[in-house]
Amino acid sequence: MAYRDEKLEEEKVFKDPVHRYVHVRDRVIWDLIGSREFQRLRRVKQLGTTYLTFHGAEHSRFNHSLGVYEIVRRILENFRDREHWNEEERLLCLCAALLHDLGHGPFSHSFEKVFKLDHEDFTQEILLGDTEVNRILTHVEEGFPKKVADVINKTYSDKLVVSLISSQIDADRMDYLQRDAYFTGVSYGHFDMERILRVMRPMEDQVVIKESGMHAVEDYIMSRYQMYWQVYFHPVTRSAEVILSKILHRAKELYQNHYEFKLKPVHFLSFFEGSPTLKEYLALDENVVMYYFQTWMDEDDPILSDLCERFVNRRLFKYIEFNPNLQMNEWRELYELFREADLNPRYYLEVDSSSDLPYDFYRPGEEGERLPIHLLQPNKELKELSRLSDIVESISGKKRTDHKLYFPADELRRMPEDSEVKQRILGILYGKEEQ
Amino acid sequence: MLENHAKLMHFFASCDEVVGRKRLQKMVYIMKKCGVNFEERYEFHFYGPYSEELTLRIEEMCNLGFISEAMEEKKNYYQYRYKLTDAGNDFLSHSDIDLPELKGYIDGMNEKSSRFLELVSTMLFFEHLPKDEIEEKIYTVKSKQNYKPEELEEAWAFIQEMRPVS
Protein backbone atom coordinates (compact mmCIF):
# COMPACT_ATOMS: atom_id res chain seq x y z
CA MET A 1 0.00 0.00 0.00
CA ALA A 2 1.27 3.50 -0.82
CA TYR A 3 2.51 5.45 2.21
CA ARG A 4 -0.13 8.15 1.62
CA ASP A 5 -2.92 5.57 2.03
CA GLU A 6 -1.41 3.69 4.95
CA LYS A 7 -3.64 3.47 8.01
CA LEU A 8 -2.62 2.69 11.56
CA GLU A 9 -3.74 -0.73 12.68
CA GLU A 10 -5.73 0.86 15.48
CA GLU A 11 -6.94 4.43 15.60
CA LYS A 12 -4.90 6.60 17.97
CA VAL A 13 -6.62 9.27 20.03
CA PHE A 14 -5.34 12.27 21.96
CA LYS A 15 -7.54 13.32 24.87
CA ASP A 16 -8.36 16.96 24.29
CA PRO A 17 -10.19 19.36 26.62
CA VAL A 18 -11.81 21.25 23.72
CA HIS A 19 -12.74 18.57 21.19
CA ARG A 20 -12.80 15.64 23.69
CA TYR A 21 -10.71 13.48 21.35
CA VAL A 22 -8.36 14.10 18.44
CA HIS A 23 -8.54 11.06 16.16
CA VAL A 24 -5.59 9.87 14.07
CA ARG A 25 -5.76 6.98 11.64
CA ASP A 26 -3.41 8.09 8.85
CA ARG A 27 0.18 6.88 9.21
CA VAL A 28 1.47 10.15 7.67
CA ILE A 29 -0.27 12.27 10.32
CA TRP A 30 0.99 10.04 13.10
CA ASP A 31 4.57 10.31 11.80
CA LEU A 32 4.33 14.10 11.46
CA ILE A 33 3.14 14.45 15.05
CA GLY A 34 6.18 12.48 16.16
CA SER A 35 8.66 14.63 14.20
CA ARG A 36 11.06 16.80 16.17
CA GLU A 37 9.87 20.01 14.50
CA PHE A 38 6.27 19.32 15.50
CA GLN A 39 7.24 18.26 19.04
CA ARG A 40 9.06 21.59 19.41
CA LEU A 41 5.65 23.30 19.35
CA ARG A 42 5.11 21.96 22.89
CA ARG A 43 7.72 24.53 23.95
CA VAL A 44 6.00 27.54 22.36
CA LYS A 45 2.97 28.90 24.17
CA GLN A 46 -0.11 29.60 22.09
CA LEU A 47 -0.80 32.92 23.79
CA GLY A 48 2.72 34.19 24.53
CA THR A 49 2.64 36.49 27.54
CA THR A 50 -1.08 36.08 28.28
CA TYR A 51 -0.28 33.63 31.11
CA LEU A 52 0.86 36.67 33.12
CA THR A 53 -2.76 37.91 33.06
CA PHE A 54 -4.75 34.66 32.87
CA HIS A 55 -2.70 32.09 34.76
CA GLY A 56 -4.32 29.15 32.98
CA ALA A 57 -3.10 30.25 29.55
CA GLU A 58 -0.09 27.94 29.50
CA HIS A 59 -1.31 25.89 26.53
CA SER A 60 1.01 25.42 23.58
CA ARG A 61 0.95 25.63 19.82
CA PHE A 62 1.17 21.84 19.88
CA ASN A 63 -2.33 21.62 21.46
CA HIS A 64 -3.73 24.14 19.01
CA SER A 65 -2.22 22.47 15.95
CA LEU A 66 -3.75 19.13 16.90
CA GLY A 67 -7.07 20.94 17.40
CA VAL A 68 -7.01 22.53 13.95
CA TYR A 69 -6.20 19.15 12.43
CA GLU A 70 -9.18 17.60 14.26
CA ILE A 71 -11.60 20.29 13.08
CA VAL A 72 -10.49 19.90 9.46
CA ARG A 73 -10.80 16.12 9.79
CA ARG A 74 -14.42 16.55 10.91
CA ILE A 75 -15.21 19.08 8.18
CA LEU A 76 -13.90 16.69 5.55
CA GLU A 77 -16.08 13.86 6.83
CA ASN A 78 -19.01 16.17 6.18
CA PHE A 79 -17.68 17.14 2.73
CA ARG A 80 -17.22 13.58 1.48
CA ASP A 81 -19.29 12.95 -1.67
CA ARG A 82 -20.45 16.56 -1.88
CA GLU A 83 -20.22 18.51 -5.12
CA HIS A 84 -17.03 20.62 -5.52
CA TRP A 85 -15.09 18.51 -3.02
CA ASN A 86 -12.18 16.46 -4.33
CA GLU A 87 -11.48 13.64 -1.87
CA GLU A 88 -7.93 13.36 -3.24
CA GLU A 89 -7.13 16.63 -1.45
CA ARG A 90 -7.98 15.11 1.95
CA LEU A 91 -4.45 14.23 3.11
CA LEU A 92 -3.11 17.57 1.86
CA CYS A 93 -5.73 19.43 3.93
CA LEU A 94 -4.99 17.40 7.04
CA CYS A 95 -1.23 17.93 6.74
CA ALA A 96 -1.62 21.68 6.14
CA ALA A 97 -3.97 21.97 9.13
CA LEU A 98 -1.56 20.13 11.39
CA LEU A 99 1.52 22.03 10.24
CA HIS A 100 0.15 25.54 9.68
CA ASP A 101 1.90 27.03 12.77
CA LEU A 102 5.12 25.06 12.49
CA GLY A 103 7.32 28.15 12.06
CA HIS A 104 6.16 30.01 15.16
CA GLY A 105 9.04 30.93 17.42
CA PRO A 106 9.15 31.86 21.10
CA PHE A 107 6.89 34.81 21.99
CA SER A 108 6.69 35.13 18.26
CA HIS A 109 4.87 38.43 18.06
CA SER A 110 7.57 40.45 19.86
CA PHE A 111 10.42 38.45 18.38
CA GLU A 112 9.24 39.04 14.86
CA LYS A 113 8.85 42.78 15.42
CA VAL A 114 12.21 43.29 17.09
CA PHE A 115 14.29 41.00 14.88
CA LYS A 116 12.32 41.66 11.67
CA LEU A 117 11.44 38.01 11.12
CA ASP A 118 8.36 36.31 9.77
CA HIS A 119 7.29 32.94 11.15
CA GLU A 120 5.62 32.16 7.81
CA ASP A 121 9.05 32.16 6.16
CA PHE A 122 10.29 29.64 8.72
CA THR A 123 7.20 27.47 8.21
CA GLN A 124 8.12 27.32 4.53
CA GLU A 125 11.75 26.54 5.36
CA ILE A 126 10.78 23.71 7.71
CA LEU A 127 8.46 22.21 5.10
CA LEU A 128 10.92 22.50 2.24
CA GLY A 129 14.30 22.20 4.00
CA ASP A 130 16.37 19.41 5.49
CA THR A 131 13.96 18.41 8.28
CA GLU A 132 12.14 15.35 9.55
CA VAL A 133 8.85 16.91 8.46
CA ASN A 134 10.14 17.34 4.92
CA ARG A 135 11.30 13.72 4.75
CA ILE A 136 7.89 12.46 5.85
CA LEU A 137 6.05 14.64 3.34
CA THR A 138 8.45 13.73 0.53
CA HIS A 139 7.78 10.07 1.29
CA VAL A 140 4.12 10.74 0.38
CA GLU A 141 5.08 12.17 -3.02
CA GLU A 142 8.02 14.13 -4.44
CA GLY A 143 6.13 17.43 -4.78
CA PHE A 144 3.98 16.99 -1.67
CA PRO A 145 6.00 19.28 0.68
CA LYS A 146 5.60 22.09 -1.86
CA LYS A 147 1.84 21.53 -2.03
CA VAL A 148 1.53 21.69 1.76
CA ALA A 149 3.69 24.83 1.76
CA ASP A 150 1.48 26.42 -0.90
CA VAL A 151 -1.71 25.69 1.05
CA ILE A 152 -0.24 27.24 4.21
CA ASN A 153 1.11 30.18 2.18
CA LYS A 154 -2.42 30.54 0.72
CA THR A 155 -1.09 30.31 -2.83
CA TYR A 156 -2.32 26.81 -3.68
CA SER A 157 -4.36 26.55 -6.86
CA ASP A 158 -7.45 25.04 -5.18
CA LYS A 159 -8.82 27.94 -3.14
CA LEU A 160 -11.39 25.77 -1.43
CA VAL A 161 -8.54 23.85 0.21
CA VAL A 162 -6.89 27.12 1.30
CA SER A 163 -10.13 28.49 2.72
CA LEU A 164 -10.50 25.55 5.10
CA ILE A 165 -7.22 26.48 6.79
CA SER A 166 -7.34 30.22 6.29
CA SER A 167 -10.42 32.36 5.72
CA GLN A 168 -12.77 34.43 7.83
CA ILE A 169 -14.36 31.27 9.18
CA ASP A 170 -11.70 28.62 9.23
CA ALA A 171 -10.50 25.74 11.37
CA ASP A 172 -7.64 27.81 12.79
CA ARG A 173 -9.91 30.45 14.30
CA MET A 174 -12.54 27.97 15.40
CA ASP A 175 -9.93 26.09 17.39
CA TYR A 176 -8.06 29.00 18.96
CA LEU A 177 -11.17 30.85 20.07
CA GLN A 178 -12.49 27.84 21.95
CA ARG A 179 -9.10 26.71 23.22
CA ASP A 180 -8.04 30.15 24.40
CA ALA A 181 -11.40 30.62 26.14
CA TYR A 182 -11.02 27.25 27.85
CA PHE A 183 -7.48 27.84 29.09
CA THR A 184 -7.94 31.46 30.12
CA GLY A 185 -11.15 30.49 31.89
CA VAL A 186 -13.25 33.29 30.38
CA SER A 187 -16.87 32.72 29.50
CA TYR A 188 -16.60 34.35 26.06
CA GLY A 189 -15.27 32.47 23.06
CA HIS A 190 -17.83 29.73 23.07
CA PHE A 191 -20.04 29.08 20.06
CA ASP A 192 -21.79 26.12 18.54
CA MET A 193 -19.04 24.70 16.35
CA GLU A 194 -20.87 21.43 15.71
CA ARG A 195 -23.68 23.44 14.15
CA ILE A 196 -21.25 25.45 11.98
CA LEU A 197 -19.56 22.27 10.78
CA ARG A 198 -22.94 20.84 9.82
CA VAL A 199 -23.89 23.88 7.71
CA MET A 200 -20.53 24.36 5.97
CA ARG A 201 -20.67 23.66 2.25
CA PRO A 202 -17.86 23.40 -0.28
CA MET A 203 -18.13 25.69 -3.31
CA GLU A 204 -15.82 26.08 -6.28
CA ASP A 205 -13.27 28.27 -4.53
CA GLN A 206 -14.45 28.84 -0.97
CA VAL A 207 -16.33 27.37 1.96
CA VAL A 208 -19.77 28.90 2.46
CA ILE A 209 -22.39 28.58 5.19
CA LYS A 210 -26.00 27.59 4.62
CA GLU A 211 -28.23 30.54 5.49
CA SER A 212 -29.97 28.46 8.16
CA GLY A 213 -26.69 28.45 10.09
CA MET A 214 -26.47 32.23 10.28
CA HIS A 215 -27.15 32.45 14.02
CA ALA A 216 -24.36 30.03 14.84
CA VAL A 217 -22.02 32.19 12.74
CA GLU A 218 -23.25 35.32 14.54
CA ASP A 219 -22.19 33.70 17.82
CA TYR A 220 -18.78 32.92 16.34
CA ILE A 221 -18.33 36.53 15.20
CA MET A 222 -19.40 37.85 18.61
CA SER A 223 -16.96 35.55 20.34
CA ARG A 224 -14.13 36.84 18.13
CA TYR A 225 -15.06 40.37 19.08
CA GLN A 226 -15.24 39.68 22.81
CA MET A 227 -12.11 37.54 22.96
CA TYR A 228 -10.15 40.35 21.36
CA TRP A 229 -11.01 42.94 23.96
CA GLN A 230 -11.19 40.61 26.97
CA VAL A 231 -8.20 38.37 26.28
CA TYR A 232 -6.00 39.08 23.28
CA PHE A 233 -5.68 42.83 23.79
CA HIS A 234 -5.87 42.79 27.57
CA PRO A 235 -3.88 45.84 28.79
CA VAL A 236 -1.92 43.83 31.36
CA THR A 237 -0.83 41.34 28.71
CA ARG A 238 0.14 44.27 26.52
CA SER A 239 2.26 45.60 29.39
CA ALA A 240 4.15 42.28 29.54
CA GLU A 241 4.53 42.42 25.77
CA VAL A 242 5.95 45.96 25.96
CA ILE A 243 8.55 44.85 28.53
CA LEU A 244 9.41 41.76 26.49
CA SER A 245 10.06 43.89 23.41
CA LYS A 246 12.17 46.31 25.44
CA ILE A 247 14.30 43.43 26.77
CA LEU A 248 14.99 42.19 23.26
CA HIS A 249 15.77 45.69 22.01
CA ARG A 250 18.09 46.34 24.95
CA ALA A 251 19.95 43.04 24.60
CA LYS A 252 20.40 43.67 20.88
CA GLU A 253 21.61 47.22 21.46
CA LEU A 254 24.11 46.07 24.09
CA TYR A 255 25.42 43.40 21.74
CA GLN A 256 25.83 45.93 18.94
CA ASN A 257 27.73 48.19 21.34
CA HIS A 258 30.11 45.33 22.20
CA TYR A 259 28.84 44.96 25.76
CA GLU A 260 30.44 42.01 27.58
CA PHE A 261 27.60 39.74 28.71
CA LYS A 262 28.48 37.65 31.79
CA LEU A 263 27.09 34.66 29.92
CA LYS A 264 27.59 34.83 26.17
CA PRO A 265 24.06 34.79 24.66
CA VAL A 266 24.98 32.18 22.06
CA HIS A 267 21.38 31.34 21.20
CA PHE A 268 20.64 34.98 20.42
CA LEU A 269 23.72 35.95 18.42
CA SER A 270 22.30 35.16 14.98
CA PHE A 271 19.07 36.99 15.92
CA PHE A 272 21.06 40.07 16.95
CA GLU A 273 22.88 39.88 13.63
CA GLY A 274 19.62 39.58 11.75
CA SER A 275 19.92 36.25 9.97
CA PRO A 276 19.28 33.13 12.02
CA THR A 277 19.58 29.87 10.11
CA LEU A 278 16.75 27.38 10.41
CA LYS A 279 18.78 25.34 12.88
CA GLU A 280 19.44 28.40 15.04
CA TYR A 281 15.82 29.48 14.83
CA LEU A 282 14.54 26.10 15.95
CA ALA A 283 17.02 25.95 18.84
CA LEU A 284 15.52 29.03 20.51
CA ASP A 285 12.29 28.02 22.22
CA GLU A 286 10.57 29.69 25.16
CA ASN A 287 12.37 27.60 27.77
CA VAL A 288 15.71 28.82 26.42
CA VAL A 289 14.50 32.43 26.29
CA MET A 290 13.33 32.31 29.91
CA TYR A 291 16.70 30.88 30.96
CA TYR A 292 18.44 33.89 29.42
CA PHE A 293 16.02 36.32 31.05
CA GLN A 294 16.75 34.78 34.44
CA THR A 295 20.47 35.03 33.75
CA TRP A 296 20.24 38.62 32.54
CA MET A 297 18.65 39.64 35.84
CA ASP A 298 22.22 39.50 37.19
CA GLU A 299 23.77 41.51 34.35
CA ASP A 300 25.62 44.75 35.14
CA ASP A 301 23.55 46.76 32.71
CA PRO A 302 20.84 48.24 34.96
CA ILE A 303 18.23 48.54 32.23
CA LEU A 304 18.51 44.95 30.98
CA SER A 305 18.65 43.62 34.50
CA ASP A 306 15.63 45.63 35.63
CA LEU A 307 13.50 44.78 32.60
CA CYS A 308 14.23 41.05 32.97
CA GLU A 309 13.42 41.19 36.68
CA ARG A 310 10.13 42.86 35.80
CA PHE A 311 9.23 40.22 33.25
CA VAL A 312 10.25 37.19 35.31
CA ASN A 313 8.63 38.44 38.52
CA ARG A 314 5.66 40.11 36.87
CA ARG A 315 6.48 43.65 37.98
CA LEU A 316 4.76 45.16 34.98
CA PHE A 317 4.33 48.71 33.73
CA LYS A 318 1.15 50.61 34.56
CA TYR A 319 -0.86 52.35 31.89
CA ILE A 320 -3.25 55.19 31.18
CA GLU A 321 -5.52 55.84 28.21
CA PHE A 322 -3.72 58.03 25.70
CA ASN A 323 -4.74 59.98 22.62
CA PRO A 324 -1.69 60.56 20.40
CA ASN A 325 -3.42 63.41 18.60
CA LEU A 326 -4.78 65.40 21.54
CA GLN A 327 -1.83 64.62 23.84
CA MET A 328 1.06 65.07 21.43
CA ASN A 329 2.59 67.90 23.48
CA GLU A 330 2.23 65.95 26.71
CA TRP A 331 4.12 63.08 25.12
CA ARG A 332 7.03 65.36 24.24
CA GLU A 333 7.08 66.86 27.71
CA LEU A 334 6.94 63.44 29.37
CA TYR A 335 9.80 62.24 27.21
CA GLU A 336 12.00 65.09 28.45
CA LEU A 337 10.88 64.70 32.07
CA PHE A 338 11.72 60.98 32.02
CA ARG A 339 15.20 61.89 30.81
CA GLU A 340 15.56 64.38 33.66
CA ALA A 341 14.40 61.68 36.09
CA ASP A 342 17.14 59.39 34.75
CA LEU A 343 14.60 56.95 33.33
CA ASN A 344 15.60 56.23 29.75
CA PRO A 345 12.33 57.00 27.88
CA ARG A 346 13.28 54.63 25.05
CA TYR A 347 12.90 51.78 27.52
CA TYR A 348 10.49 53.14 30.13
CA LEU A 349 7.86 55.03 28.15
CA GLU A 350 5.81 53.48 25.38
CA VAL A 351 2.61 54.17 23.48
CA ASP A 352 1.03 50.85 22.57
CA SER A 353 -1.64 50.80 19.86
CA SER A 354 -4.21 48.23 18.86
CA SER A 355 -2.49 47.91 15.48
CA ASP A 356 0.59 46.60 17.30
CA LEU A 357 -1.38 43.39 17.76
CA PRO A 358 -3.37 43.04 14.55
CA TYR A 359 -6.33 40.79 14.97
CA ASP A 360 -8.76 40.33 12.18
CA PHE A 361 -12.17 41.46 13.26
CA TYR A 362 -14.82 40.46 10.84
CA ARG A 363 -15.11 43.15 8.21
CA PRO A 364 -17.27 42.78 5.12
CA GLY A 365 -14.75 45.10 3.46
CA GLU A 366 -14.71 46.60 0.05
CA GLU A 367 -15.13 44.55 -3.08
CA GLY A 368 -11.88 42.80 -3.86
CA GLU A 369 -10.29 43.73 -0.54
CA ARG A 370 -10.60 40.33 1.16
CA LEU A 371 -13.03 37.47 0.91
CA PRO A 372 -15.95 37.86 3.35
CA ILE A 373 -18.14 35.13 4.88
CA HIS A 374 -20.80 34.15 2.38
CA LEU A 375 -24.19 32.68 3.24
CA LEU A 376 -25.70 30.23 0.79
CA GLN A 377 -29.35 31.07 0.29
CA PRO A 378 -32.03 28.52 -0.62
CA ASN A 379 -32.03 29.86 -4.21
CA LYS A 380 -28.26 29.04 -4.34
CA GLU A 381 -27.25 32.70 -4.39
CA LEU A 382 -24.46 33.89 -2.10
CA LYS A 383 -24.89 36.90 0.20
CA GLU A 384 -22.29 38.52 2.40
CA LEU A 385 -22.97 37.86 6.09
CA SER A 386 -23.47 41.44 7.35
CA ARG A 387 -26.08 42.07 4.64
CA LEU A 388 -28.31 39.50 6.30
CA SER A 389 -27.29 39.73 9.94
CA ASP A 390 -28.13 42.87 11.93
CA ILE A 391 -25.87 41.74 14.76
CA VAL A 392 -22.84 41.36 12.53
CA GLU A 393 -23.60 44.60 10.74
CA SER A 394 -23.77 46.49 14.04
CA ILE A 395 -20.41 45.29 15.36
CA SER A 396 -18.73 45.64 11.95
CA GLY A 397 -19.02 49.41 12.22
CA LYS A 398 -17.79 49.81 15.81
CA LYS A 399 -14.73 51.82 16.74
CA ARG A 400 -12.08 49.23 17.44
CA THR A 401 -8.90 51.13 18.08
CA ASP A 402 -7.14 51.89 21.32
CA HIS A 403 -3.91 53.52 22.52
CA LYS A 404 -2.32 53.28 25.93
CA LEU A 405 0.73 54.85 27.51
CA TYR A 406 2.88 52.43 29.55
CA PHE A 407 5.35 53.50 32.26
CA PRO A 408 6.99 52.15 35.47
CA ALA A 409 4.73 53.61 38.19
CA ASP A 410 6.85 51.96 40.92
CA GLU A 411 9.95 53.91 39.82
CA LEU A 412 8.01 57.15 39.87
CA ARG A 413 6.71 56.43 43.36
CA ARG A 414 10.24 55.87 44.59
CA MET A 415 11.33 59.37 43.57
CA PRO A 416 11.52 61.91 46.44
CA GLU A 417 8.18 63.51 47.24
CA ASP A 418 9.61 67.00 46.87
CA SER A 419 10.97 66.29 43.39
CA GLU A 420 9.56 68.83 40.98
CA VAL A 421 10.11 66.45 38.07
CA LYS A 422 8.07 63.78 39.83
CA GLN A 423 5.23 66.18 40.47
CA ARG A 424 5.20 67.30 36.84
CA ILE A 425 5.23 63.71 35.57
CA LEU A 426 2.42 62.66 37.89
CA GLY A 427 0.51 65.78 36.96
CA ILE A 428 0.57 64.78 33.28
CA LEU A 429 -0.14 61.09 33.90
CA TYR A 430 -2.84 61.32 36.54
CA GLY A 431 -3.97 64.92 36.70
CA LYS A 432 -3.22 66.75 39.92
CA GLU A 433 -2.75 63.77 42.22
CA GLU A 434 -1.46 60.24 41.89
CA GLN A 435 -4.24 57.64 41.80
CA MET B 1 5.71 57.55 18.98
CA LEU B 2 3.60 56.07 16.17
CA GLU B 3 6.50 55.94 13.69
CA ASN B 4 4.72 53.44 11.44
CA HIS B 5 1.63 55.64 11.40
CA ALA B 6 3.80 58.61 10.50
CA LYS B 7 5.26 56.71 7.54
CA LEU B 8 1.75 56.12 6.24
CA MET B 9 0.89 59.78 6.75
CA HIS B 10 3.94 60.62 4.65
CA PHE B 11 2.44 58.35 1.99
CA PHE B 12 -0.90 60.20 2.11
CA ALA B 13 0.88 63.56 2.16
CA SER B 14 2.43 62.59 -1.18
CA CYS B 15 -0.91 62.41 -3.01
CA ASP B 16 -4.28 64.15 -3.07
CA GLU B 17 -6.25 61.09 -2.10
CA VAL B 18 -6.47 57.32 -2.44
CA VAL B 19 -9.75 55.84 -3.61
CA GLY B 20 -10.42 52.26 -2.55
CA ARG B 21 -9.10 50.04 0.19
CA LYS B 22 -7.94 47.39 -2.23
CA ARG B 23 -5.96 50.00 -4.16
CA LEU B 24 -4.44 51.31 -0.94
CA GLN B 25 -3.42 47.82 0.19
CA LYS B 26 -1.72 47.09 -3.10
CA MET B 27 -0.01 50.49 -3.37
CA VAL B 28 1.61 50.21 0.07
CA TYR B 29 2.67 46.64 -0.69
CA ILE B 30 4.25 47.61 -4.02
CA MET B 31 6.14 50.47 -2.37
CA LYS B 32 7.30 48.14 0.38
CA LYS B 33 8.55 45.59 -2.13
CA CYS B 34 10.32 48.38 -3.97
CA GLY B 35 12.32 49.17 -0.86
CA VAL B 36 10.28 51.80 1.01
CA ASN B 37 10.55 51.05 4.71
CA PHE B 38 6.90 50.30 5.50
CA GLU B 39 6.69 47.70 8.27
CA GLU B 40 3.16 46.37 7.82
CA ARG B 41 3.12 42.59 7.58
CA TYR B 42 1.43 41.16 4.50
CA GLU B 43 -0.01 37.74 3.76
CA PHE B 44 -1.40 36.33 0.57
CA HIS B 45 -5.20 36.44 0.46
CA PHE B 46 -7.89 35.69 -2.05
CA TYR B 47 -7.23 38.96 -3.88
CA GLY B 48 -3.44 38.99 -3.49
CA PRO B 49 -1.20 40.49 -0.79
CA TYR B 50 -3.19 41.95 2.09
CA SER B 51 -2.16 43.42 5.45
CA GLU B 52 -4.49 43.36 8.43
CA GLU B 53 -1.95 45.55 10.21
CA LEU B 54 -2.37 48.20 7.53
CA THR B 55 -6.16 48.01 7.74
CA LEU B 56 -6.06 48.53 11.48
CA ARG B 57 -3.49 51.31 11.31
CA ILE B 58 -5.62 53.18 8.78
CA GLU B 59 -8.63 52.74 11.06
CA GLU B 60 -6.61 54.12 13.97
CA MET B 61 -5.51 57.14 11.97
CA CYS B 62 -9.11 57.79 10.97
CA ASN B 63 -10.26 57.53 14.59
CA LEU B 64 -7.48 59.87 15.72
CA GLY B 65 -8.45 62.39 13.05
CA PHE B 66 -5.18 62.13 11.09
CA ILE B 67 -6.88 60.78 7.98
CA SER B 68 -10.38 61.36 6.67
CA GLU B 69 -12.40 58.45 5.34
CA ALA B 70 -15.41 58.99 3.09
CA MET B 71 -17.66 56.04 2.30
CA GLU B 72 -19.53 55.89 -0.99
CA GLU B 73 -22.20 53.34 -1.77
CA LYS B 74 -21.69 51.55 -5.08
CA LYS B 75 -23.99 49.05 -6.69
CA ASN B 76 -23.17 46.01 -4.56
CA TYR B 77 -20.50 47.32 -2.23
CA TYR B 78 -19.01 50.34 -0.48
CA GLN B 79 -15.95 52.24 -1.58
CA TYR B 80 -13.72 54.41 0.62
CA ARG B 81 -11.72 57.57 -0.03
CA TYR B 82 -8.76 58.55 2.13
CA LYS B 83 -7.08 61.92 2.62
CA LEU B 84 -4.59 63.36 5.07
CA THR B 85 -6.18 65.95 7.40
CA ASP B 86 -4.66 69.12 8.90
CA ALA B 87 -4.17 67.24 12.19
CA GLY B 88 -2.35 64.53 10.26
CA ASN B 89 -0.15 67.13 8.58
CA ASP B 90 0.61 68.68 11.94
CA PHE B 91 1.54 65.30 13.46
CA LEU B 92 3.72 64.52 10.46
CA SER B 93 5.56 67.83 10.76
CA HIS B 94 6.65 66.86 14.29
CA SER B 95 7.84 63.38 13.41
CA ASP B 96 11.35 62.64 12.21
CA ILE B 97 10.76 59.72 9.89
CA ASP B 98 13.15 59.30 7.03
CA LEU B 99 11.42 58.23 3.82
CA PRO B 100 12.20 59.08 0.19
CA GLU B 101 10.06 61.34 -2.01
CA LEU B 102 7.11 59.21 -3.08
CA LYS B 103 4.87 61.52 -5.08
CA GLY B 104 5.91 60.49 -8.58
CA TYR B 105 5.55 56.81 -7.77
CA ILE B 106 2.20 57.22 -6.07
CA ASP B 107 0.87 59.28 -8.96
CA GLY B 108 2.05 56.52 -11.29
CA MET B 109 0.14 53.90 -9.31
CA ASN B 110 -2.94 56.07 -8.96
CA GLU B 111 -3.18 56.18 -12.75
CA LYS B 112 -3.47 52.39 -12.90
CA SER B 113 -6.54 50.26 -12.27
CA SER B 114 -6.79 48.27 -9.05
CA ARG B 115 -6.93 45.12 -11.23
CA PHE B 116 -3.50 46.05 -12.59
CA LEU B 117 -2.14 46.81 -9.09
CA GLU B 118 -3.44 43.42 -7.95
CA LEU B 119 -1.43 41.82 -10.74
CA VAL B 120 1.75 43.77 -9.96
CA SER B 121 1.53 43.10 -6.23
CA THR B 122 0.94 39.39 -6.83
CA MET B 123 3.96 39.22 -9.15
CA LEU B 124 6.04 40.92 -6.45
CA PHE B 125 4.77 38.42 -3.87
CA PHE B 126 6.41 35.68 -5.91
CA GLU B 127 9.53 37.66 -6.81
CA HIS B 128 11.82 35.05 -5.25
CA LEU B 129 10.87 32.70 -8.13
CA PRO B 130 12.24 32.74 -11.70
CA LYS B 131 10.26 34.87 -14.17
CA ASP B 132 8.55 31.96 -15.95
CA GLU B 133 7.46 30.46 -12.62
CA ILE B 134 6.06 33.80 -11.50
CA GLU B 135 3.94 33.97 -14.64
CA GLU B 136 2.83 30.38 -14.14
CA LYS B 137 1.83 31.27 -10.56
CA ILE B 138 -0.20 34.23 -11.81
CA TYR B 139 -2.16 32.00 -14.15
CA THR B 140 -2.70 29.52 -11.30
CA VAL B 141 -3.66 31.73 -8.37
CA LYS B 142 -5.34 34.41 -10.49
CA SER B 143 -7.00 32.13 -13.02
CA LYS B 144 -10.37 33.88 -12.68
CA GLN B 145 -8.93 37.31 -13.60
CA ASN B 146 -7.81 36.04 -17.00
CA TYR B 147 -4.77 38.28 -17.24
CA LYS B 148 -3.51 38.59 -20.80
CA PRO B 149 0.19 38.23 -21.74
CA GLU B 150 0.34 41.92 -22.66
CA GLU B 151 -0.89 42.84 -19.18
CA LEU B 152 1.94 40.79 -17.69
CA GLU B 153 4.40 42.56 -20.00
CA GLU B 154 3.06 45.92 -18.89
CA ALA B 155 3.34 44.82 -15.25
CA TRP B 156 7.00 43.79 -15.70
CA ALA B 157 7.77 47.16 -17.25
CA PHE B 158 5.92 48.92 -14.43
CA ILE B 159 7.97 47.03 -11.81
CA GLN B 160 11.17 48.11 -13.58
CA GLU B 161 10.03 51.72 -13.43
CA MET B 162 9.14 51.45 -9.75
CA ARG B 163 12.39 49.84 -8.61
CA PRO B 164 14.45 53.04 -8.31
CA VAL B 165 12.11 54.16 -5.51
CA SER B 166 14.42 52.71 -2.86
Number of DSSP-assigned strands of chain A:
9
End-to-end Cα distance of chain B, whole Å, is 24 Å
CATH architecture classification name of the largest domain in chain A: Orthogonal Bundle
Radius of gyration of chain B: 16 Å
Q: Characterize the biggest β-sheet of chain A.
A: 4 strands, mixed
What share of residues are in beta strands of chain B? 5-15%
- Principal-axes geometry of chain A comes out as globular
Organism (chain B): Salimicrobium halophilum
Protein name (chain B): YwgA family protein
Pfam families (chain A): HD, HD_assoc_2
GO molecular function (chain A): dGTPase activity
Blueprint of the fold:
The complex is a heterodimer of chains A (435) and B (166).
Chain A: E1 7-16, E2 20-26, H1 27-34, H2 36-39, H3 61-79, H4 90-99, H5 108-115, H6 119-128, H7 132-140, H8 144-153, H9 159-165, H10 171-184, H11 193-199, E3 200-202, E4 207-210, H12 214-232, H13 235-256, H14 269-273, H15 278-283, H16 286-296, H17 302-312, E5 318-321, H18 328-340, H19 345-348, E6 350-353, E7 374-376, E8 382-384, H20 385-388, H21 390-396, E9 403-407, H22 409-414, H23 420-430
Parallel strand pairs in A: 4-7
Antiparallel strand pairs in A: 1-2, 3-4, 5-9, 6-9, 7-8
Chain B: H1 3-13, E1 18-19, H2 21-33, E2 43-45, E3 48-50, H3 52-64, E4 67-73, E5 78-84, H4 86-94, H5 103-110, H6 114-125, H7 131-141, H8 149-162
Antiparallel strand pairs in B: 1-5, 2-3, 4-5
Helix pairs in contact in B: 1-4, 2-6, 6-8
Domain HD (chain A): 61-177
GO molecular function (chain A): dGTPase activity
Protein name (chain A): HD domain-containing protein
